[in-house]
Specification:
By secondary structure, the chain is of the alpha/beta class. The protein has a domain at about 90-195. It has helices spanning about 20-35, 55-60, 65-70, 90-100, 125-130, 145-150, 160-170, and strands at about 105-110, 130-135, 155-160, 175-180, 195. The longest helix is centred in the first third of the chain and has 14 residues, at about 20-35.
Length: about 200
């Protein structure tokens, strides 16, 4: 992946490991790690229906993002040390598509791939106050191409998602509204100047 060249992503072959099975989520990844002679492996799921997790006591006490750092013994403050290689060309092209909308209010109402979650937000943000509506869509091949647009937005109003986490971890400084969608344990920590809405 361009944005994170330091990560080597491995794909689980669905032909051999059917989705939504133990082997798809845990068995195959552990086998791949073993074949690659990984020094350490960590199962980062804090919850998985029907399966006993190694650190269940910790999982029920911490938010899911805190849990991942706890079981890997990485200081939680490192969450805000996200290193992304930015694609200046991709960000510039996306911004050009939004130029006629300035000042703009970026809205994200729908969950990502595999999610049918939807929360209508547009009616809550009058364009005359918050900026012209721009809805997050797959306008480019990478969700990270939105970073420059986030930085230049008058207002951002998003559901808890990949986009809200990028905004949080990169400490993007603008007026931001986060619309929650999960119970507390399944909602990550947000501490970078958000206004919280249900």
């Amino acid at each position: 992946m361009y944005a994170a060249p330091y990560v080597n992503f491995l794909t689980v072959d669905e032909r051999h490991f059917p989705k939504n099975t133990y082997n798809y989520f845990i068995g195959a990844p552990l086998a791949y790690a073993s074949q690659l002679k990984a020094d350490k492996t960590f199962i980062l799921y804090s919850q998985m229906g029907g399966y006993q997790l190694e650190h269940r006591d910790i999982a029920t006490s911490l938010k899911f993002d805190e849990y991942k750092y706890a079981v890997t013994e990485v200081p939680f403050r490192e969450k805000w040390n996200l290193q992304i290689r930015r694609n200046e060309e991709g960000e510039k092209n996306l911004l050009q598509r939004l130029d006629n909308k300035r000042p703009f209010c970026i809205l994200h109402e729908r969950g990502g791939e595999g999610s049918n979650f939807h929360k209508a937000l547009a009616h809550l943000y009058d364009p005359s106050t918050f900026g012209n509506h721009v809805f997050i869509e797959n306008l480019t091949s990478s969700p990270f191409d939105w970073i420059a647009a986030f930085e230049q937005a008058k207002t951002i109003a998003v559901i808890d998602s990949l986009h809200s986490n990028v905004i949080e971890q990169l400490k993007i400084n603008t007026t931001k509204y986060l619309h929650t969608r999960s119970p507390a344990l399944l909602t990550p920590v947000f501490m970078e100047g958000w206004h919280f809405r249900g």
